[in-house]
Design goal:
This protein is mostly beta strands and about 120 residues long. The protein has one domain. Helices cover about 15% and strands about 40% of the residues. The chain has one helix and eight strands; from the N terminus they run ββββββββα. It has one helix at about 105-120; strands spanning about 15-20, 25-30, 35-40, 45-55, 65-70, 75-80, 85-90, 95-100. The strands form two sheets. Strands 1-2-3-4 form a four-stranded antiparallel beta sheet, with no helix packed on it. Strands 5-6-7-8 form a four-stranded antiparallel beta sheet, covered by helices on one side. A hairpin with a 5-residue loop joins strand 5 and strand 6 (about 75-80).
């Protein structure tokens, strides 16, 4: 699948990530994070229907890095405020916020959180 995504007002895309299931595409520009839900339509499965999902997150910054968990049910987002947020897609709520002393600790905590969700 090849897609062209343009930011209308805010400028260039700073980061983007496609979920392992291919169901979601998350991207961030300099101001906000956007989440697109991708669904195949038609019997030939060639055409796609793209729906923008509303994120009810009250976060003032753009993301600079993100990763989906293995089953595409959570998105881990690193923001410019040096915190890492984990968003659950079922109810579009934040389930974890990591505010560590240093970023290496934040990275390890985030990896452990994703690893835990893969096992359970």
């Amino acid at each position: 699948m090849v897609a062209l995504i343009k930011c209308k007002v805010y400028g260039k895309i700073t980061c983007s990530k496609l979920s392992p299931s291919g169901e979601f595409l998350a991207y961030s520009d300099h101001v906000k994070l956007c989440l697109l839900e991708l669904n195949r339509t038609g019997s030939n499965k060639v055409s796609w229907n793209v729906n923008k999902r509303q994120l009810s997150l009250d976060l003032p910054f753009a993301a600079h890095s993100m990763v989906f968990n293995r089953d595409s049910s959570q998105l881990m987002i690193a923001w410019c405020d040096k915190r890492i947020y984990v968003v659950q897609f079922g109810n579009m709520q934040m389930v974890h916020v990591f505010a560590p002393v240093n970023m290496m600790f934040a990275f390890l905590c985030g990896i452990l959180c994703i690893w835990k969700s893969m096992i359970l």
